[in-house]
Amino acid sequence: FDLVRDSYAEAAEAAAGILMPVGEAWRIALARDPALPLYAGDGFHPTELGSVVAAYVIWQRLTGRSPVGLPPVIEIGSSRRIELGERAALLQEAAAKANDRFQGD
Question: What is the pLDDT of the chain when averaged over all its residues?
Answer without folding.
Answer: 92
